[in-house]
Amino acid sequence: MSAASLDGRRCWIFDMDGTLTVPIHDFEAIRAALGLPLGLPILESLLELPAAAAEEKRRRLSVIELELARAAEAAPGAEALLAALRRRGDRLGILTRNSRANAGLTLETCGLAGYFPEADRVTRDDGPPKPAPAGIHLLLGRWDGRPDQAVMLGDFRFDLEAGRAAGCATVHVEAGGRFRWPELADRCVRRLDELLPL
After folding, report:
1. pTM for this one?
2. Strand order in the sheet with 187-189
3. Helix (H, G, I), strand (E, B) or coil at 86
4. Enclosing H/E stretch for 165
5. Distances (CA, A) of 78 to 19, 59, 64, 153, 169
6. 101 has a pLDDT exceeding 80
7. What are the φ/ψ torsions at residue 144 (nearest 5 degrees)?
8. Rounded alpha-carbon distances, angstroms, from residue 186 to 59, 96, 100, 164, 195
9. Of 78, 119, 181, 184, which sits with the fewest C-beta atoms within 10 Å of its C-beta?
10. Which residues lie below 8 Å from residue 31, measured CB to CB, with a gap of 6+?
11. What burial letters (b/e) apply to 32-53, b meaning 16+ CB within 10 Å?
């Protein structure tokens, strides 16, 4: 994808934790606290459990996520990009594997809630989580947008896989610059405001 190809896109869909916020989630520690297999996705692991056990672990997960939401900080460069896109009149949405309640608290805590109307926040409570592309399709449907007008931005392969599956441009955001999934990303940035010149 060429450097200029993001310029005509007016639908921007952001992962939340670790993309718009400073990464603080230790997913292996969360899995260990919940007694789930290490290295496997948490939400999918919960689906494999009997209903009663899964419900108890979901309650514990909500407590952990609430603590993390209360500690959220906006990632460097996030507000600068969001403000520029808003001035341009672009649509801004959230697609997160977090719950709706914790997504709202996270955005409020880090000062970014004003950029994302409630209707433009898609969470695990709204349908199949990433890497399924359903959340992207849901947002584009609300916006009367098309995949070739959209960008999916995230720090993990599920974000990039969802964007690819939906036919969007994808941006891998990773402050450390490791960029582990180059085959899934049209562009790789350490900070969101690196996209401002585009």
Report:
1. 0.92
2. 121-122, 91-95, 11-14, 150-154, 169-173, 187-189
3. helix
4. helix 157-166
5. 8, 30, 24, 11, 18
6. yes
7. 55, 40
8. 37, 20, 29, 10, 12
9. 119
10. 37, 38, 39, 40, 42, 45
11. eebebeeeebbeebbeeeeeee
Rounded Cα gap, residues 105 and 190, in angstroms: 25
CA distance 76 to 155: 14
Residues of the chain with CATH 3.40.50.1000: 3-23+73-195
CA distance 134 to 150: 14
CATH hierarchy code of domain 3-23+73-195: 3.40.50.1000
Which pair of structure tokens corresponds to residue 138? 């849901």
Each residue of 74-90: pLDDT tens digit?
Answer: 999 999 999 999 999 99
The tokens describing 74, both together, are 């906006």
